[in-house]
Design a protein that fits this description.
Elements (H helix, E strand, L loop, with lengths): L4 H15 L5 H8 L14 H23 L3 H12 L4 E6 L7 E6 L4 H18 L7 E3 L6 E3 L12 H16 L1
Antiparallel strand pairs: 1-2, 3-4
Amino acid sequence: MTVHRPAAELAVEIVNAWKSRTLDRDWVAALLTRELLPIRHRGGVGPEDVVHAHAVLEHFAQEVSPVFEVGDTRSAADALNTVLGSVDIRVTVSISDEFVPHLHFDGTSDGIADRLRVNCLVALATVLADSGGALRLGVCDSCGRAFVDFSRSARQRFCTRRCATRSHVRKHRNNAS
């Protein structure tokens, strides 16, 4: 099974927003109005949807954050399995003129935030299951932000190249002085 990269990256974005305390209702409202989200049948988004989504996504970030922080694949799988055990997931195969057959994952609720949560959880589970034993979920050595490692070597230690460069420059300057 291939990883649904946009949903895995969205999970990281939600966790990082929560960790940096920017996961507020304005952040959630902006997220829900994005053109590209890893779910289907979005429909309109009203103020009550934003309030509900904020609560769901904040809870999601709290429950998933430890998956990135544990440091080994078995512990990450155990932490994620605990979360997955609390979710009812409905799987369907979707076929349309625009796309090849593909899977859709939905919760038992029709809310947009609940569907985002389920898709993010399945994406993270797929990252863990398809990693060949390597842990591809982690926390940046420099800034502490969560990341998903999509590199070929599965040895990523930083959330971005910019963060890695900053860390290496800092280390070089400390060694030079």
